[in-house]
Design goal:
Helix content is about 35%, strand content about 20%. By secondary structure, the protein is α/β, with parallel strands linked by helices. Strands 3-2-1-6-4-7-5 form a 7-stranded parallel sheet, with helices on both faces. It is globular and about 50 Å long.
């Protein structure tokens, strides 16, 4: 097999959207909800990942910090300007609002009767909101109870959790690919 020549692309070759272009382009019908995230670096990472997958909006709930914030900006790398976001104090109130707007709300959590991510296939004409929980306690049980479905990332090793920024990356990539294919 012949070896391909691989040259890293320069930033100027990546044809990235401007912030105005990002705001104008059709988004993936997916909303991210952060339920009481304490790490500012995790919040910034979620913004950056949401930008990468053209996520419609991020809701920051409870103790989750909001931009502008130097620590969020450090990992978001400007994505707080491209991705729409809103602060909502009570996650349950937000879940009820989203469901009233016919948005399917999915808790990303390990739970009884959860659906494994690899077996979850979103409907193409449906909008979804995915809720990620606190780094220690996860998605609050009352929030899980209010959701339409619980999605679990299958894990095979000895640890039974992933960092929230890793979980967000896995879920947003998987669901975005399924919705956009």
């Amino acid at each position: 097999m012949a070896k391909l020549t691989m040259r890293k692309l320069k930033n100027t070759e990546l044809e990235r959207l401007t912030i105005e272009g990002f705001k104008a382009i059709t988004k993936t019908p997916l909303i991210v909800v952060l339920d009481n995230i304490r790490s500012l670096n995790n919040i910034g990472s979620v913004f950056r990942t949401s930008d990468a997958f053209l996520i419609e909006k991020i809701y920051l709930c409870g103790i989750t910090a909001t931009p502008p914030n130097r620590e969020i900006h450090k990992t978001a790398l400007g994505a707080t300007a491209s991705v729409d976001w809103e602060y909502v104090e009570n996650t349950i109130d937000l879940v009820e609002k989203l469901k009233a707007e016919n948005i399917n709300v999915l808790a990303i959590e390990q739970a009884e009767n959860s659906t494994k991510l690899d077996t979850f296939f979103p409907e193409k004409d449906q909008k979804y909101a995915v809720i990620f929980g606190n780094e220690v306690k996860g998605v609050h049980q009352k929030v899980v109870n209010a959701c339409d479905l619980c999605i679990e990332i299958p894990q095979l090793g000895t640890k039974h959790s992933l960092n929230i920024s890793v979980s967000v990356g896995i879920v947003l990539w998987d669901v975005s690919v399924k919705l956009n294919s």
